[in-house]
Amino acid sequence: MLHQVMIKAAGLGTRMQPFSHQIPKVFLPFFGVPVIQWVLEGLLDASVSSFVINVHHHASWMQSELKKLTSTLNCNIRISDESSQLLGSAGGIRQAAIQGPFFIANADVLTQVDWKKLAHCHARLRKLHGVSLTLAIHPGKIRSFYTEILFDPKEELILGLDAVREGRPFYTGVGILEPEACAYIPEHGVSDFVTSILKPAILQKKAGCYFSEENWYDFGSVQTWRDAHFQWMKNFEHGFSWGKRWDLRMQAQFRHAPGIWSDREGDFSKQWKAPCYWGLGVNPPQFLGPEAILYGEGEIRNYLSGIGHCGIWKDLGCD
Prior knowledge:
With 319 residues, the protein is an alpha/beta fold. The chain has a seven-stranded mixed β-sheet, with helices on both faces. It has a six-stranded mixed β-sheet with strand order 14-15-16-18-20-21, covered by helices on one side. Strands 2-3 form a two-stranded antiparallel sheet. The protein is globular and about 60 Å long. It contains eight helices and 21 strands.
């Protein structure tokens, strides 16, 4: 089992605007807690103990908040500072300079991947094929568009990348890299993961795939950030277990009616419509939902089909 991970958190978060103007997207809340904290806690539960996190947008603020998380979670976090230049998804890995094989994870993705099974799969494929990396691939049976991953299910090797399609196998943002997987990253400047890491491994037939059908949540856009709340509430109400830390957090929330949640007690279900959630405020909204998430103070207005945080509200269409 590996004990170190590179967490990619330095993106500008353009698809999370206007909220990412205030704070980095990975510190936006999910049931009241920063998304990146959920990611860290999931890895801690899998016995990962050493983290390297890159920073760029709001870099000083992020470093201060990550220092607090180091104390809160009692873990080791090393900062890779990209405040002067955003180095890209491969350049950031190069600068992090992690020794030995390591996990990679995107801080704007929350997954219930079994990290130990991923590590065992990588070890087996490394012995069998000499793979330099293994990526967790989702079968893609969801209503979202991602780059399709082409693979050989028998050999468990990635064969290539296809067009962006709905409901096709895609890369979850989670994987394992060996040092040699980073050999083609340019020594300087900006470089991306697909060009400098994944494609060379595919050409050498050294790109392994681990099939992960676990629940997967994308926080890369305002729409997916909002919708992840609804998916999580629905699954939790149907008895899914998310792991010790995550279960305890959800048990501390309050379910007022099916699909109607908040972070405190109260009779909110009469004028709120499912699905909806409110937290991190003092005054609850009078009307909320359907399909609304609100963090912060409520006003005398209808919060319908959107998401709000600290005074910013973004209208979104109903599904």
